[in-house]
């Protein structure tokens, strides 16, 4: 007779996305080793390990899966000092996994360079802790992370841009186009 009781515990299945080596297209599936992603149809693609992003098991406003290094924006009302709505604005965030906190966070795009330039995990955490005090990162529990994602729009992924500056340039272009379309 066994002393163990069998119980069913749902274990989330994390999927990954990465860019294929041969053409740079995104593929999603299960990691097999460090250089392969296996799709549902059991076909394996060789991927660039530097582009691997882990699923957060969270869906965005438009129903797309949120992965680490995905860039999203939240649209909010812009108000004047009297509380009158004078327009809207977008705040850009990047989904990140912070190992030391064992949680996903939304990193404000304005902190990306400082975060990426840190030379160690400890420096990254120090950066986050410093900025968390001023509210420019969204450090919430997993339910809060999921709730935040549900109200955001997908913009792209960090690995779609050769450098952070290219991402910032695309955001500025997008913002200018949005302003032109409102006129």
Commentary on this structure:
The chain is of the alpha+beta class and 183 residues long. The chain has 2 domains: 8-51, no CATH class; 59-182, no CATH class. It contains 4 helices and 11 strands; from the N terminus they run βββββββββααβαβα. A hairpin with a 4-residue loop joins strand 8 (85-98) and strand 9 (103-108).
Average the pLDDT over all residues and give the rounded result. Answer: 78
Number of DSSP strand runs: 11
Contiguous runs where pLDDT drops below 50 for at least 5 residues? 1-12
- What would the principal axes of the Cα set say about the shape? globular
Number of helices: 4
The largest sheet is:
6 strands, antiparallel
What descriptive keywords fit this protein?
2 domains, globular, 25% helix, alpha+beta, 4 helices, 6-stranded antiparallel sheet, single chain, 183 residues, 5-stranded antiparallel sheet, 11 strands
Summarize it.
This protein has 183 residues and is an alpha+beta fold. The protein has helices at 112-117, 121-132, 142-149, 164-182; strands at residues 16-19, 26-32, 36-38, 44-46, 53-59, 65-67, 70-79, 85-98, 103-108, 137-138, 153-157.
Detail the topology: elements first, then pairings:
Elements: E1 16-19, E2 26-32, E3 36-38, E4 44-46, E5 53-59, E6 65-67, E7 70-79, E8 85-98, E9 103-108, H1 112-117, H2 121-132, E10 137-138, H3 142-149, E11 153-157, H4 164-182
Antiparallel strand pairs: 1-2, 1-5, 2-3, 3-4, 5-6, 7-8, 7-11, 8-9, 9-10
């Amino acid at each position: 007779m066994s002393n163990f009781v069998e119980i069913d515990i749902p274990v989330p299945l994390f999927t990954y996305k990465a860019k294929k080596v041969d053409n740079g297209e995104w593929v999603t599936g299960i990691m097999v080793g460090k250089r392969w992603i296996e799709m549902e149809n059991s076909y394996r693609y060789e991927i660039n390990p530097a582009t691997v992003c882990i699923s957060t098991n969270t869906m965005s406003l438009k129903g797309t899966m949120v992965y680490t290094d995905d860039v999203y924006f939240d649209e909010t009302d812009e108000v004047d000092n009297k509380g009158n709505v004078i327009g809207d604005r977008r705040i850009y965030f990047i989904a990140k996994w912070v190992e030391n906190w064992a949680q996903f966070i939304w990193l404000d795009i304005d902190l990306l360079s400082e975060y990426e330039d840190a030379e160690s995990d400890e420096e990254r955490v120090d950066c986050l802790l410093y900025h968390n005090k001023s509210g420019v990162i969204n450090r919430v529990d997993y339910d809060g992370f999921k709730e935040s994602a549900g109200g955001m729009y997908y913009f792209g992924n960090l690995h779609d841009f050769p450098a952070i500056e290219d991402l910032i340039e695309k955001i500025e272009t997008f913002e200018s186009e949005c302003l032109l379309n409102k006129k």
